[in-house]
């Protein structure tokens, strides 16, 4: 498949402080003890997409990510890591790496996705319709989206939590309208010309843009060149393409254009009447783009397609602390097929090298990493514990994530919290809904609720 | 009154408690469309009696309602009510009474809109309580074969569950882009089929605005649906019309009123009929053409010409969709093409060519006549060699030999077209003179077509007396109606002529242009510019054109080296654009400075020299327009603008203003007042004021000195 994949892995997302740090860029945040990026890579590999470019914001972060990739999967995949300046936005990042792009079509995937939706299906849809852009949509989580707005979680200007409003044609193949719910003040404005051409439009708010896009390379580069002000794929490039789909300024392909141009020139005169009457007789053919295009003769159109993922598929973007907790819980819990591990009969994974003290229980939906030690009379429920952690006795860990090399003293109680790597909890610490930064030391006997521990 | 209401209320309660299915199925047929689309024909005959493939429209409606199981039909008559009643009394609907069907008439000659009609029915209601519950509201020009019983049941069930569901609208997928009726944008809830937004498309460009509150759930926006104007209404509809006495139009006011103003939370639902059924309303000539064709193509079965469904005489269906009356006489050499209907007692001469047309009863068509895509009604005489394309020809018309009807012509009753006369395209011809007392479009829309008819009819006699008034050739009679200016563009949309190619191209281009404009003008927020803005830009544009023309004129005129000549030319421009003298001065000065800048120069001083030479030479022209201080200030401001645009001129501002002062082009007063005006401006605006500070200071001192000297 002549597809190049660009993974926008971001840099240090402010939404994820204190989980991310100079040491741990967002792409390397552990989900069930392996970096979130590995889920994306696995997903792509499963669709046989092996030619990847990972775009990371910031040189340091790029080095870290590159280091991990070379150690983890250099033998299986052909991965390049490209560093771009920070805060250039997704469109800016693509502009920066434009010279690396050579394939006919580009698949752009956000690096923080944990999902089992095959990206190959998006690519196939894209090819089948010969679309300029294909967007993958998935069902909006019922509990209210944890959508952070900007793609890659970098655009801080946008308020989090807003629905996508999406207009589809009657066959749910084409994207006719896209807007952010928060940007719509009083009323939605839908272009009548597109509506006239398509006949019907279904406007839905129960779908969510999943930040997996397939672009025609030529189209993408044309737009990025023509519109230097565009910063974000989702907020600028995509709406622009959707809006202009019936009067395209971007040419899909040079050769294609010539071919079409010749064809049109010849046929136009003869076909004009036929096609006009076609428009009259049936304005809502599935390929309304072509009908429209040939009706106008001089204008070109491009198609914006969608691939709607099945509702049963799992999809989460790791772009907030809440999402981080959810993903960890789901990957070792309900959606454990994503983790790639084989679970024991107790629905948990305890690494053989882990040591458990007497009367310690590790419940279902738990994970205990390599070389970790847990003292006596502990209870671990629905939690992920990393590698080489040292956990004392009488410790309760519920609904939490403990990263590698953390130390937890005797008598601690941890609920709904994240303990980053190398952090230390002294004796009898009680945490509830807290985040502890990497390397931080929480004093003995303290009790906290909903706090963030960081050195700054 | 109160007692009657109580009775009505009581009866309603009784109905509710009783089995609903025992309610009589009732329908209201509006035998007046309250529009003027069919004028001039409707001045003489009500629209519902116009023949549609040789059968009056209302028969299609009544036959359909009868077969759909409606038990009681109220025909609401308004304009030409006597004609409608006469027709019904003579028709089978009265003479062959069906025990299961009651046809009654309601007459209200004063009603001028659907709203009035329903209010009238409501008022009658309180006395007679004719309408018992849910009813079907249709127009008398509806052609359909859809079943209604299930639909009514669906409506009732919904109403039982949800008190507020008071109306069900029938919609149908549009099989083709009928430009005749305005396209409709509808937003429907795909699950409940509730109507959320209804917009008759006036311009097919721009944006459709949907209220944000609609977007909580999935919304289906349709542009490919057709409103059949068949509504199942509950009794609340009548009282709503009574309460909102300004509601006139069923869709524009009532439906939109309910959707937008959210009156008492009433809801309207839609019902999409299956594509195997037919439903359409004839509201203009184009839909007349379309529905006629559909009838001939048998979409409306069983309401087709070869079946007797309303006392009509069935025609015989031949091959290629040719329907022919058994007694029609046709020369062997005449060529009858596909999809043609020929009525009883019609004679067709030699060598004619007739296709895609409907010819009524008792017509007499001569030799070598070409009829294409036209509707010839009854008792029409067409003499030899005529050519008729895409026209409607009413009863009793005579078309003399060799006459030509160009596409889109409508000939009303008894018109005579003179020998060899060519009736221009899209003209409407009637024996009646066009009513001249049309106040406005709105008035037109609702004016009862009966209002002026009496006067007009008396005019007919006059006309026949003094036949010299004919506009249709020496031996013809009839007036060609003038088309209102604004309606002219629309004429092609609503006529029976297929839409011309260039118009289609225009539409698509308009949509296209709209796109382009959209792209550049609409800010990302999607907020459109306010109207005032666009007006301003228009005015600016005008001035821009004017400025450019003046510049051109000026450049041309200076070759002649004659101040008076330049003034004359510029004045002609000035009057053409209706500009004030200050504008002229501004434009002239602009041209002069442009000339100076465009003259080759190497340094600022050279530019200054250029400018001074030009000003010296043409100060007469400037002076002509600069008689008032205000105008002089205008020029200084204009100059300021120019300097802002041109980096070269900027530094010379003070010098040139001073020069203008020296040459008496601008007076000291003007400069001082300009300075005062500018004193309050923003800092950024004051650049040139600062440049001129010295000059102004000097002027002030000079004037003070003068004053001192004076005193």
TrEMBL record, chain A:
One of its GO terms (cellular component) is eukaryotic translation initiation factor 2B complex. CDD domains: eIF-2B_gamma_N, LbH_eIF2B_gamma_C. One of its GO terms (molecular function) is translation initiation factor activity. It is found in: Cytoplasm, Cytosol. Residues 5-147 form the Nucleotidyl transferase domain. SUPFAM superfamilies: Nucleotide-diphospho-sugar transferases (SSF53448). Keywords: Cytoplasm, Initiation factor, Protein biosynthesis, Transferase. Belongs to the eIF-2B gamma/epsilon subunits family. Acts as a component of the translation initiation factor 2B (eIF2B) complex, which catalyzes the exchange of GDP for GTP on the eukaryotic initiation factor 2 (eIF2) complex gamma subunit. Its guanine nucleotide exchange factor activity is repressed when bound to eIF2 complex phosphorylated on the alpha subunit, thereby limiting the amount of methionyl-initiator methionine tRNA available to the ribosome and consequently global translation is repressed. This is Translation initiation factor eIF2B subunit gamma. The lineage of its organism: Eukaryota, Viridiplantae, Streptophyta, Embryophyta, Tracheophyta.
UniProtKB/TrEMBL annotation, chain B:
Its main location: cytoplasm. InterPro entries: eIF-2B_epsilon_N, eIF2B_epsilon, LbH_EIF2B3/5, NTP_transferase_dom, W2_domain, W2_eIF2B_epsilon. GO terms for cellular component: cytosol; eukaryotic translation initiation factor 2B complex. Residues 540-709 form the W2 domain. The keyword Glycoprotein does not apply. Component of the translation initiation factor 2B (eIF2B) complex which is a heterodecamer of two sets of five different subunits: alpha, beta, gamma, delta and epsilon. Subunits alpha, beta and delta comprise a regulatory subcomplex and subunits epsilon and gamma comprise a catalytic subcomplex. Within the complex, the hexameric regulatory complex resides at the center, with the two heterodimeric catalytic subcomplexes bound on opposite sides. This is Translation initiation factor eIF2B subunit epsilon.
